[in-house]
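Box 3.1 A note on notation
Throughout this textbook, protein chains are presented in two layers. The first layer is the amino acid sequence; the second is a token string describing backbone geometry. Keep the layers aligned when reading.
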Amino acid sequence: MSARIVAHRLDWSDPAAVFAGGLGAEEHSFWLDAGPDAMSGFSWMGPGAPEERPPHDLPLATTDAAHAPVPGPFRGGWVGWAGYDAAAAIGGAPACVVDDDGPQDSWQRVSWFVAFDHASRGMWVIGPEELLGTATAAVVRWARAGRDRRAAAPHEAVQRTASARQTPAEYRALIERCREAIRAGDAYQLCLTTRFTVAAPMPIDPVATYLALRDRLPAHHGGIIRNGTTALLSASPERFLEVGDGSVRTRPIKGTRPRGRDAHDDDALRRGLQESVKERAENVMIVDLMRNDLQRVCAPGTVVAERLLDVESYSAVHQLVSTVAGRLTPGTTLGDLLDAAFPAGSMTGAPKLSAMAILNGLEKGPRGLYAGCFGWVGTDGRADLAMTIRSIVVRADAAYVGAGGGITWLSDPDEEVAEVGVKARGPLSVLGAELPPGW
């Protein structure tokens, strides 16, 4: 983006209308979504141009930000994703990288974008002054068209069949192998995952499917990124890395329960999660791992657990969430941070390198974009990346959904299988697919 960046305010429109009205049809486009009923935070969307990943030598924002001429923390830069498998290989673990899963790293350079401030109901078109007239006209046109499309064409998922990488019995056997590795002292927590694939006899509409996903599983770090023939649709509840004003923050999730049938049942499930010895231990293990990761790029003595073992509730699940933060060492680059923290400990287990090696031998297939991260990196060194979980990856002839859970010595195999089903059911349902028998 040019040095002269301006923001033009428009009357509020539903972000879904703007994206569905035309922007989402662009071959390269994005919408980073604070959720359908968000009352705080920002959403961003716009067209993009394919570009290499953000430069690893990009200095991170290690001082308080000066006054910015545009609202919100994103002031232009890159939007995209980084997959799990390539990052595991870079970290020194054996990994399975498969081109058919979609590009492991795929980013767009943003020339102009739309910002939505959900607290103030403010909406701006932001970009170089010379592009703003054309961009504003497009946004107004899309918003008008999108209101009509949303009212006239509700999403109807075609019935499809999901296949599983492992049967429930095979997954239970892998849990036992995880426990054997823990007994041997090779790990003390392992995030075991699997994959559900949906064949697409007819093309999957990424925009309609994402709108259905956000309605079914509203989340504060959702989004859709279209990069050519691959689209990532996510209802992620987990913020991976937030960088700004000299600090870095991560919010690992470990511990899940389904929502209850009624208020009494729901409260019991919530309390059971909060009081579970196994889930609390699992969460603390990953907090300790993330503290260690961030300490590699933060000033000594500044890394702290700001919140520990909080329960957050979503439409389908209760989650046990903690927050770890630290002050970045001056001179830290984006590459330094990703080398220290990615893949995220919540998706590997601990110790990280040993866990990734063990899991590669057990899972026998790529994770692809699942268990990676997505979001934005600003040219000013700020960033906000979410974990690629509760997500659908759409390709030309198929879509896939990854799901898994943390295995400890206290894991109950039946409960772990049920947890995988809880996590995968929502994304699969918007594809019109049911879980295979036993899940």
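The first helix runs from residue 15 to 20. The chain has ten helices and 23 strands.
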